[in-house]
Design brief:
The protein is α+β, with helices and mostly antiparallel strands. It has one helix at residues 20-29; strands spanning 8-14, 33-40. It is built from one helix and two strands, in the order βαβ. The longest helix is centred in the middle third of the chain and has 10 residues, at 20-29.
Length: 43
């Protein structure tokens, strides 16, 4: 059983770091449900 299994998550990625869709795929494979995902630029 994963820590993220049956959890609903909000993902905020970083344009210069790890983008949101990459984080999404990792969390989905761990059993999480992504309810919102975005990649932002933090200046």
């Amino acid at each position: 059983m994963s820590m993220f299994e049956n959890r609903k998550l909000i993902v905020i990625g970083d344009r210069d770091g790890i983008p949101g869709p990459a984080i999404d795929e990792c969390l989905k494979s761990a059993g999480a449900e992504i309810v919102f995902s975005s990649t932002e630029c933090f200046v």
